[in-house]
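User: I've been trying to design a sequence by hand for this structure and keep getting stuck. Would you show me what you'd pick, starting by listing the structure so we're on the same page?

Assistant: Good idea, let's start from the same input. This is the structure you sent:
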């Protein structure tokens, strides 16, 4: 994912020095003001595609086009969910989430990193692939917790679909944030990525090994069954029967699964 919402690295870096509880409470309050909507109408999708264009152009990640929108075929391919997060009824950020599996092998990161990811799909693993994470420049400056509030959806999806891994396809300069915030580790160095000018690397975390620490560190991460069903009950694309079974509890997944080859056996501290 080209995380253009994270362009102000110095500002985000200050979060690491703050009291974790104070910051977490701030994000929780921000979430209380946010309306997370599935982009089910043409108008909602168009607004998200315009926000994407503005964010990616600021980063120099795409070339200009006459429509001043940015979309791609994966907005309608695979087991896909497109979200807009509205702050006081203003579109503040957006993220697209694909749920990849042996049954649903169509997701963006697989196209660029098939040599790394395909063996895990063949082994029956479930992969959450968040992409097209963007935010409004003004609102992201006002609300430093906005990236966390947006990326939270990838962890909510992981809980809902019993995911094994959560990915982050990001540029090299953004990797430090994902490592600190969500313990994601580099599993592939940057390489050309479809439709983007700059190369993208791949990071991943083994969700069952992370979930307990994640829920303890960030009070805003936990989700309820009703929230997960509201967000992920049905796919956005043409798939009529999503074969993945959602979780049926309101707490984090406690069953620890074997770590995959690309994740270290000794999971570093989230604060590291």
């Amino acid at each position: 994912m080209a995380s253009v919402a994270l362009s102000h690295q110095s500002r985000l870096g200050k979060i690491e020095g703050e009291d974790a509880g104070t910051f977490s409470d701030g994000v929780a309050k921000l979430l209380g003001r946010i309306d997370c909507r599935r982009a089910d109408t043409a108008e909602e999708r168009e607004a998200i595609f315009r926000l994407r264009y503005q964010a990616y152009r600021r980063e120099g990640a795409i070339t200009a086009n006459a429509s001043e929108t940015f979309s791609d075929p994966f907005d309608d391919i695979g087991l896909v969910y497109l979200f807009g997060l509205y702050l006081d009824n203003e579109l503040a950020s957006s993220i697209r989430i694909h749920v990849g599996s042996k049954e649903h092998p169509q997701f963006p990161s697989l196209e660029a990193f098939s040599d790394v990811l395909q063996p895990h799909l063949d082994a029956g693993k479930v992969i959450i692939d968040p992409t097209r994470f963007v935010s409004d420049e003004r609102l992201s400056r006002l609300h430093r917790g906005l990236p966390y509030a947006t990326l939270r959806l990838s962890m909510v999806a992981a809980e809902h679909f019993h995911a094994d891994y959560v990915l982050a396809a990001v540029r090299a300069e953004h990797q430090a944030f994902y490592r600190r915030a969500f313990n994601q580790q580099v599993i592939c160095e940057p390489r050309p990525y479809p439709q983007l000018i700059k190369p993208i690397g791949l990071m991943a975390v083994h969700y069952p090994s992370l979930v307990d620490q994640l829920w303890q560190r960030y009070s805003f991460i936990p989700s309820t069954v009703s929230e997960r069903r509201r967000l992920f009950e049905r796919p956005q694309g043409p798939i009529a029967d999503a074969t993945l079974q959602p979780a049926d509890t309101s707490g984090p997944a406690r069953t620890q699964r074997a770590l995959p080859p690309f994740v270290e056996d000794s999971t570093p501290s989230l604060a590291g």
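That's my pick for every position. To get oriented when you compare it with your attempt: Confidence is low (pLDDT under 50) at residues 1-17, 248-272. The two ends are 23 Å apart (CA to CA).
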